[in-house]
Amino acid sequence: MGCKLNFSETTSIARLLENDGFIKKDFDEVADLYVINTCSVTENADKECRQLVRRIQKKAPEALVVVTGCYAQLKPQEIANIPGVNLVLGAAEKFNISAHLKELSKNDAGKICSCDIEDVNVFTASHSLNERTRIFLKVQDGCDYNCSFCTIPMARGKSRSESISDVLKRVDEIALGGAKEIVLTGINLGDFGKGYTGGRKHEENFFDLIKELDDKTNIERFRISSIEPNLLSNEMIEFVSRSSKFMPHFHIPLQSGSNKILADMRRRYKRELYAEKVELIKKLMPHACIGVDVIVGFPGETDDEFRDTANFLESLDVSYLHVFTYSERDNTYALELKPVVPVHVRNERNKILRNISYSKMQQFTEQHIGQSRKVLFESVNKNGMMEGYTDNYIKITAPYRKEWENTIVDWKI
Length: 413
Ligand code: SF4
What we know:
Layout: H1 4-19, E1 33-38, H2 45-59, E2 64-69, H3 70-74, H4 76-80, E3 87-89, H5 97-102, E4 111-113, E5 126-127, E6 134-138, E7 140-141, H6 152-156, E8 160-161, H7 164-176, E9 181-185, E10 194-197, E11 200-203, H8 206-216, E12 221-224, H9 234-242, E13 249-255, H10 259-264, H11 271-284, E14 289-296, H12 303-315, E15 320-325, H13 343-367, E16 372-377, E17 385-390, E18 395-399, E19 408-412
Parallel strand pairs: 1-2, 2-3, 3-4, 6-9, 9-12, 13-14, 14-15
Antiparallel strand pairs: 5-6, 7-8, 10-11, 16-17, 16-19, 17-18
Helix pairs in contact: 7-8, 9-11, 12-13
The site of iron/sulfur cluster has 10 residues, from helix 6.
């Protein structure tokens, strides 16, 4: 379940198990072991997990069921109580799954192996492989911010990262495997640079990382999955505009277009800074794609403040929105804020912003019709068709051609 980072970690867990002799099956097939990597952002994570376990029990009653991931760290007991769950692994244990499996039997019910999130301080590298043409490479984990709606710091712990030299080694390995594009992922990617390698503390920064990747690796394309506006420096934007490897594609969380709501969310910027970043990106790279995360229905968001956000988004030269409906999370400061926005109002606001997103996406695509851009096609034949993305993240569907698989092709939109 969940985000790109979870996706890369899920693949790493699968790889660990394959090294131990397990064979990977589709979730719908019968297996001896099922691992569910949960997400805390997913609404109703508990319900979804319950449903999955029920499906497993019907299909393979003798199978072992292990649940890990953010939700397992936040609510281990809740998950352990789900009938059919044999083992719950917290954040520190998810990559030790092999060791835990050696001691696990079907008679174990709801066993929990988890520790306090304050004690989770080791960075474990992971990346997706053989799943998609684009590889999601985790270079950072955890977060030291305390946005008032967010439980991720409680689920993933303090900010920590891989060292630049280790990232470079990993990227070389990935390049040898033939991949053309790497998406750098993290929980708070712009905060890259904190961490320990072999017990030694390193202090580096994200700008240094992207410069080194640009300079010293053979990967043709990099994308930055998501970066906080206050951590996206003007130098980085200028650098990406000059780089042939870093794609003109940014995903920058805004969350609200009202400065009052931003302050209540404990975000570290005002909307003016956000507008400046978008303006600079479009000035230097008019073709750049910019995605925006936004939350609707945060406590205290009045009709006026919501309109303010909608108008602000309309005025920005961005390409698409990811709209999230606020939902209450235990142990967050936002729970204390009033008045609560009724759920039907949250849903209406979500719909309004999704409509804005749709027209922004359409506008952005139409601006490029007739232009030639480079498309990286994926290695999947979907009923005679194949898909790929341009440098600026426009999705292209074309009749399948074997020789285009995992290849960058000049394409007239
Ligand atoms: S920056 Fe804020 S929203 Fe993002 S993970 Fe950290 S606390 Fe959560």
